[in-house]
Amino acid sequence: MNTLLKGTLYLAVATAVLTGCKKDDDDPVTPTPPAPTPTLYQRLGGTTMVNDPANPGTMIETGYLGLRSVVDSTIFVIAGDAQLQPYFAVLLAEVGSGDLTGFAALSESLTEFFAVACGAQNFTYSGMNMVDAHNSNNPRMTGLVNDADFNRFVADLVEGAAQNDVPADIVTDIGELVETLREPIVQQ
Ligand code: HEM
User: Fold this and answer.
1) CATH number for the domain including 97?
2) Residue 28 in domain
3) Residue pLDDT, tens place only, 47-63
4) Which of 25, 41, 52, 174 has CB atoms 3.0–4.6 Å from 119's, for a disulfide?
């Protein structure tokens, strides 16, 4: 290869390498990844610890407290709802006689269920699955749920949420969440 040809070749290679390495000013700035979507539990206040108003001297996660407040309000709404009262006959009879153990157990069980379903990391649900909890495998359940009563339960839940000033967008998303439970719960 003669010197001129060699020189031309070097120049071509060097230009190609330099061009390839050159930072193109037209490149879009590297995009920052979008912030991860917060879970429903985080939107309810998540793991931020606050005083538990029901247990002085005890701290509680804000998300759990919010859900427990909604659950307890909802149980009271249901207790006054003639359409759903028959399902909760065992519970209502206990409460009527001053025994709150079943109420406390249901409150905890429902709250843990919702906490886990909403994305809580520090709680587990150890109750029955949704099919067994809503048929004769649950001795505290009288009768099988139909669509109309499921709808009524959701309406009472929305009322329980409203009593605790839960923001509308969170109520909507909790509504979508419980809708996914219609199929196992409605067994009539
Ligand atoms: C929409 C979503 C619902 C959820 C997430 C839900 C969840 C639960 C949970 C977690 C339990 C406790 C199970 C256990 O501790 O092993 C339970 C019990 C029960 N559920 Fe539901 N449920 C729903 C809808 C309904 C509906 C529509 C009815 C009736 C109309 C109903 C009636 C009952 C009754 C009577 C019990 C037993 C209460 C007691 O312990 O005395 N549930 N449910």
Assistant:
1) 1.10.490.10
2) no
3) 999 999 999 999 999 99
4) 41
Q: How far, in Å, from the CA of 160 to the mean position of ligand 1?
A: 15
pTM: 0.85
Which residue has the CA at smallest separation from atom 10 of ligand 1?
110
How far is the centre of ligand 1, averaged over its atoms, from the C-alpha of 58 (Å)? 27
Contact 62, 48 (CB under 8 A): yes
Q: Which atom of ligand 1 is nearest to the CA of 150?
A: 27
The rounded Å distance from CA 4 to ligand 1 centre is 88
Answer whether residue 86 is part of any domain.
yes
Residue 1 lies in a domain: no
